[in-house]
Specification:
This protein has three domains: 45 residues, Uridine Diphospho-n-acetylenolpyruvylglucosamine Reductase, domain 2; 112 residues, 2-Layer Sandwich (Uridine Diphospho-n-acetylenolpyruvylglucosamine Reductase, domain 3); 94 residues, CO dehydrogenase flavoprotein, C-terminal domain (Enolase-like, domain 1). It has 300 residues and is an alpha+beta fold. Helix content is 31%, strand content 25%. The protein contains eleven helices and 14 strands. The protein binds flavin-adenine dinucleotide.
């Protein structure tokens, strides 16, 4: 049974930022996280600020070096776009594995980020593309790199009067490939027991840029810079993928929970990092594209 709350439906960001300062107020976007928490009694907000009527948060635009995705962009948008499967492959892979079609249609990228759980499927892929968070408040806007956005499980740098306006996702050079692998206990809808995401850029077979990001492997989604540095400057063919996997494990601190032991998660990270690296290299070379959904049309 839901406790009672005041519902506000602002139409401007300014109004929403002011309302967010009310005692016990919570933002609601798609509601796929927040209503579950309210239903199970773990969250009892005094006020809900429904931001779905704010047009600015739905904006999607291409700039010279990046794409801007408004916080209300649904996961399904990335899943349905051939362009994003080709350019931000790992991101489309992550978003297409969130819950069910209904959840992906309703759940937003902003909600996935702001919920700040370590299992969020869009976050490790977004870290590969150096995503920046655009944060709005009544005072104006500020930019915080996504890698600095989380300060702990369910905790972000957002101040009381701040709302995530959207994310900037940076375009990559030709010869870049990326991969997100999510491990779940069952094939049906499930949260990640562990997720590994890898990006490599190649020039004449040499790795010029590398990113490695993990989910459910630490209190927040993380990048493993030691593993990234290990790859840079090496010939992709000569990389010891097992050593790359080992470095990813070294950077991780998975916990033991009812879902899995920390030891099992480390075994997953080792194997998934090797696998994700190899696929990212193949994609960078153009040897394989990705498992684009069969229903995605040429025009998608
Ligand atoms: C059945 C089911 C399966 C799921 N499976 C997955 C899964 O496989 N992978 C996965 O990653 N997630 C999964 N989820 C979780 C959820 O669907 C996603 O996290 C989704 O992206 C949340 O987006 P939302 O818009 O619904 O967020 P909401 O529920 O509206 O909000 C989530 C949190 O973010 C805050 N918030 C939202 N938008 C903003 C904003 N713009 N600025 C500031 N704060 C904001 C809210 O106050 C709230 O604290 C699942 C959920 C369900 C119910």
């Amino acid at each position: 049974m839901l406790s009672s709350y005041e519902l506000y439906e602002p139409h401007t960001l300014q109004e929403a930022c002011e309302l967010k300062q009310l005692e016990g107020a919570k933002i609601v976007a798609g509601g796929t996280d927040i209503y579950v928490a309210m239903h199970n009694g773990s969250l009892k907000p005094a006020a809900l600020i429904d931001i779905k009527g704010i047009e600015e948060l739905k904006e999607i635009r291409e700039e010279e070096d990046h794409w801007f995705f408004g916080a209300l962009t649904p996961h399904r948008y990335f899943e349905e776009s051939r362009l994003f499967w080709e350019t931000f492959t790992a991101l489309s892979e992550g978003c297409s594995q969130v819950g069910s079609v209904q959840i992906r249609q309703r759940g937003t990228i902003g909600g996935n980020i702001c919920n700040a759980v370590p299992s969020a499927d869009s976050v490790a892929p977004l870290l590969l593309f150096d995503a920046d968070c655009v944060i709005a408040s009544a005072k104006g806007e500020r930019i915080v790199p996504l890698k600095d956005f989380f300060i702990g499980p369910k905790r972000t740098v957002l101040e009381k009067d701040e709302i995530l306006k959207g994310v900037k996702v940076y375009k990559q050079a030709a010869g870049t490939g990326s991969r997100y692998i999510k491990y779940t206990r069952r094939k049906a809808m499930d949260l990640a027991l562990c997720g590994v995401s890898v990006l490599v850029a190649l020039e004449d077979g040499v790795i010029t840029k590398a990113r490695a990001a993990l989910t459910t492997s630490a209190p927040t989604a993380i990048r493993v810079t030691t593993a990234e540095e290990f790859l840079i400057g090496r010939k992709a063919d000569e990389v010891d993928a097992a050593e790359f996997g080992r470095l990813c494990c070294e950077g991780a601190s998975p916990r033991t929970s009812w879902r899995s032991s920390s030891e099992f998660r480390l075994t997953l990270i080792q194997n998934m990092a090797e696998d994700a690296y190899q696929t990212a290299v193949k994609r960078a070379r153009g040897d394989v594209f990705c498992d684009t959904p069969s229903w995605l049309t040429e025009e998608g």
